[in-house]
């Protein structure tokens, strides 16, 4: 007999909640997972920024480190919202579906309550109170989970104390409030929006969503390639969400069309399967569509996260290596890279080889470019390969001298040489003019580092007339033996007026070595006070300086309209010095250059080319070394605490690189959210289809056959969503991941790098997701088998 007593508000809420505690528990878990994921993502990014700020590179002032951290934070402002939006959208979709399922399950009890006098306003108020309780419980639980995750993460990383990690997580309490409140509102609105969409309406909505999503995705895909990490950019913030959302809608469209086509084909076949499960999928397409949307979006996100992780790591590492040009680089300007400096670098623990390098600006016509040069022998030992972008063999082939180009042929001093001595005769137009003459030798050591050795002569050996014989000697500086002689020069002091001197180099020998095959002659005057007496080149007395073979970047060659074999002149920026280049190779990027407009030349040949045009040359301004990038601290200390650039990503990259774990944290949350929602959908479908089981038993379908049929039905739907979603993730990765990396990471060079895949994390994440889905399908099949055993024909007939 019905109870005639009126229900109190509390009793009504308690009774209706206990009746649907399974769905409410799923909704609470959805809110908790969403809150925990969002707080964990933001907490991780916050900890990463603090950690980068504390890790100052050796030799870099604290103010510069702070500026680099700020640059990374500016990039995160655009990139981080994408992670939150994806988790929020997936959680809101799951919450909305759970609310609709809850409303559908309560359809009969709502009618009974309305018959007993429950008004529409009271029903809405009851739904709002219930949603608030779910949101509050889920939000608090999620915040607690986020704190626990932060503490566990700090224990694993050894970064700070667990109290610090917990404080960081608790600092995002307001995020938990906002997220849980938003999901609570979604629960209320979804419950009020209707529970029985028609098949035609679902198809129309799907078509409309697909068109709008593809249009929005096409727009952001077009725009993101022009974005740069200069602050908040809404295109960058929305691009992953919109494009992945379009991929998920595309998955839904493919599934809907495929399900309808399969149902028609299956209907023509005899037997229960596959006609029965195919028809059931089409009949409940609106509910299945939500599961497909969630599973497809999650699968696409997993693949996208794997693509972003591998592509970012590759592009950031390759860009850092290309910017440095080598494993360890120390810029010495305004000082030069002396043989002693290079030798000191080579002696640092962790350094395998060292060489001088020149990095300077040049002007080509009205344009500007960058010139990078290292000794020919050092290309294979110190120049980075940057993940295979730089091919040392190809580079050396392009730098190899050709006909009518400069060839460097220094003369070896011998392994035991400690100095150099030269003898020259001087004919002057004024008595005593030889007294102002200074001889010098330009030498290079085994690393290619050059130095000028002044050859001091004995004043007693000079006569008072217009001719003299000068013998000068000098000691080799600190460096790496063996040494080679590049040139011998003569210079006349400026206070000798219009004196003209003809200097003939008669003999050059190495101290503790042998006589060298070196001779030369030059005329010094008021307008040419310094001249090269002898130069170690292969020039056949040509009066015209020859060009240097060099490699140009693809962009510079295209801008100049140059091909291999063409030549052009250039000017060294800030000086009147000129040079000439013959294009020997066109390469994607020049190691050590900060610009895509650059050329690479052999330093030893370049210095010979400079000496062909005058008696001075530009020495290397940097030291490049190959070895372990972690040797930067020791190298900085050895070179008077100078900043050391390495081939590893820097502070700014470390800040932006926190997005890689951030994507995986968000993806893990999305996997759990999808599993909760799919489990709730499957359980609701099982309750709604209990009446089918007895009828099928009456038709002779065993309970095991029913279980297999239901497993095939659910497994087919979910497997299709996983496969098509993963394919959509690959498509999304190809479309936007490289451009997104450039748009979110300062200093990424235009390398033409395609996407990569982090296969191990991808396998773990996708495998865990598939196993979870398989467990849901298996439990549903077991439930069908048990329920079918208890169903009776009489019950179903009534």
From TrEMBL:
<feature type="transmembrane region" description="Helical">
    <location>
        <begin position="82"/>
        <end position="103"/>
    </location>
</feature>
<dbReference type="Pfam" id="PF02687">
    <property type="entry name" value="FtsX"/>
</dbReference>
<keyword id="KW-0472">Membrane</keyword>
<dbReference type="GO" id="GO:0005886">
    <property type="term" value="C:plasma membrane"/>
</dbReference>
<feature type="transmembrane region" description="Helical">
    <location>
        <begin position="285"/>
        <end position="310"/>
    </location>
</feature>
<keyword id="KW-1003">Cell membrane</keyword>
<feature type="transmembrane region" description="Helical">
    <location>
        <begin position="663"/>
        <end position="688"/>
    </location>
</feature>
<feature type="transmembrane region" description="Helical">
    <location>
        <begin position="204"/>
        <end position="222"/>
    </location>
</feature>
<feature type="transmembrane region" description="Helical">
    <location>
        <begin position="242"/>
        <end position="264"/>
    </location>
</feature>
<protein>
    <recommendedName>
        <fullName>ABC3 transporter permease C-terminal domain-containing protein</fullName>
    </recommendedName>
</protein>
<feature type="transmembrane region" description="Helical">
    <location>
        <begin position="748"/>
        <end position="777"/>
    </location>
</feature>
<feature type="transmembrane region" description="Helical">
    <location>
        <begin position="124"/>
        <end position="152"/>
    </location>
</feature>
<feature type="domain" description="ABC3 transporter permease C-terminal">
    <location>
        <begin position="665"/>
        <end position="789"/>
    </location>
</feature>
<feature type="transmembrane region" description="Helical">
    <location>
        <begin position="172"/>
        <end position="192"/>
    </location>
</feature>
<dbReference type="InterPro" id="IPR003838">
    <property type="entry name" value="ABC3_permease_C"/>
</dbReference>
<keyword id="KW-0812">Transmembrane</keyword>
<feature type="transmembrane region" description="Helical">
    <location>
        <begin position="23"/>
        <end position="47"/>
    </location>
</feature>
<feature type="transmembrane region" description="Helical">
    <location>
        <begin position="714"/>
        <end position="736"/>
    </location>
</feature>
<keyword id="KW-1133">Transmembrane helix</keyword>
């Amino acid at each position: 007999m019905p109870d005639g007593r009126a229900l109190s508000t509390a009793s009504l809420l308690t009774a209706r909640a206990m009746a649907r505690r399974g769905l409410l528990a799923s909704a609470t878990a959805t809110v908790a997972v969403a809150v925990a994921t969002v707080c964990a993502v933001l907490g991780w990014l916050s900890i990463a920024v603090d950690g980068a700020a504390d890790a100052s590179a050796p030799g870099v002032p604290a103010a510069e480190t702070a500026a680099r951290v700020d640059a990374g934070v500016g990039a995160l402002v655009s990139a981080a919202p994408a992670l939150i939006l994806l988790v929020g959208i997936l959680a809101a979709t799951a919450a909305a579906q759970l609310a609709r399922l809850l409303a559908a399950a309560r359809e009969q009890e709502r009618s009974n309550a309305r018959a007993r006098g429950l008004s529409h306003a009271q029903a809405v108020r009851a739904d709002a109170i219930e949603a608030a309780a779910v949101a509050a419980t889920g939000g608090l639980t999620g915040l607690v989970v986020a704190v626990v995750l932060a503490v566990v993460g700090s224990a694993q990383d050894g970064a700070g104390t667990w109290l610090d990690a917990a404080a960081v997580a608790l600092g995002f309490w307001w995020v938990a409030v906002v997220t849980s409140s938003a999901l609570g509102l979604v629960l209320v609105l979804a419950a009020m929006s209707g529970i029985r969409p028609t098949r035609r309406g679902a198809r129309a909505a799907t078509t409309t969503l697909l068109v709008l999503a593809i249009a929005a995705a096409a727009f952001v895909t077009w725009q993101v390639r022009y974005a740069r990490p200069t602050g908040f950019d809404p295109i960058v913030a929305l691009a992953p969400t919109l494009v992945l959302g379009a991929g998920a809608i595309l998955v839904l469209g493919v599934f809907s069309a495929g399900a309808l086509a399969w149902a028609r084909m299956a209907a023509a076949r005899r037997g229960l399967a596959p006609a029965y499960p195919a028809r059931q999928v089409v009949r409940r397409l609106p509910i299945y569509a939500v599961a497909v949307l969630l599973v497809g979006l999650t699968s696409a996100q997993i693949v996208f996260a794997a693509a972003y992780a591998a592509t970012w790591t590759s592009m950031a590492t390759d860009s850092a290596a290309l910017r440095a040009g080598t494993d360890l680089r120390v810029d010495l300007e305004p000082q030069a890279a002396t043989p002693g400096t290079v030798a000191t670098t080579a002696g640092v623990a962790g350094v395998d080889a060292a060489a001088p390098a020149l990095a300077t600006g040049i002007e080509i016509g009205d344009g500007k470019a960058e010139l990078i040069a290292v000794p020919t022998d050092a290309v294979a030992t110190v120049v980075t390969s940057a993940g295979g972008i730089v091919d040392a063999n190809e580079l050396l082939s392009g730098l190899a001298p050709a006909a009518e180009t400069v060839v460097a042929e220094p003369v070896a001093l011998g392994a035991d040489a400690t100095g150099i001595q030269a003898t020259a005769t001087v004919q002057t137009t004024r008595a005593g003019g030889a007294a102002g003459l200074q001889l010098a030798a330009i030498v290079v050591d085994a690393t290619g580092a050059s130095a000028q050795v002044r050859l001091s002569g004995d004043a007693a050996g000079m006569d008072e007339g217009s001719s003299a014989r000068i013998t000068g000697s000098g000691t080799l500086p600190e460096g790496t033996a063996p040494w080679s002689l590049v040139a011998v020069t003569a210079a006349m002091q400026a206070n000798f007026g219009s004196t003209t001197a003809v200097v003939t180099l008669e003999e050059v020998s190495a101290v503790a070595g042998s006589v060298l095959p070196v001779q030369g002659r030059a005329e010094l005057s008021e307008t040419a006070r310094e001249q090269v007496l002898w130069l170690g080149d292969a020039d056949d007395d040509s009066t015209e300086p020859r060009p240097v073979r060099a490699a140009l970047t693809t962009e510079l060659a295209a801008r100049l309209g140059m091909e291999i074999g063409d030549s052009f002149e250039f000017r060294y920026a800030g000086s009147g010095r000129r040079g000439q280049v013959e294009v020997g190779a066109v390469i994607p990027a020049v190691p050590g250059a900060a610009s895509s407009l650059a050329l690479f030349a052999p330093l030893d040949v370049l210095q010979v080319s400079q000496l062909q045009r005058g008696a001075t040359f530009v020495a290397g301004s940097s030291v490049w070394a190959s070895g372990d990038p972690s040797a930067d601290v020791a190298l900085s200390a050895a070179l008077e605490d100078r900043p050391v650039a390495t081939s590893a990503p820097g502070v700014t990259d470390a800040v932006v690189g926190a997005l890689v774990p951030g994507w995986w944290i968000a993806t893990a949350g999305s996997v759990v959210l999808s599993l909760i929602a799919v489990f709730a959908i499957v359980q609701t479908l099982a309750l709604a289809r209990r009446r089918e089981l007895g009828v099928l038993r009456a038709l002779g379908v065993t309970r095991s056959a029913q279980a297999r049929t239901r497993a095939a039905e659910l497994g087919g739907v979910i497997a299709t969503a996983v496969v098509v979603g993963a394919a959509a993730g690959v498509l999304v990765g190809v479309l936007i991941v490289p451009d997104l990396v450039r748009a979110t990471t300062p200093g990424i060079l235009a390398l033409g790098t395609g996407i990569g895949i982090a296969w191990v994390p991808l396998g773990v994440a996708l495998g865990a997701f598939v196993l979870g889905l398989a467990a849901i399908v298996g439990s549903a099949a077991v439930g069908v088998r048990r329920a079918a055993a208890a169903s009776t024909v009489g019950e179903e007939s009534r």
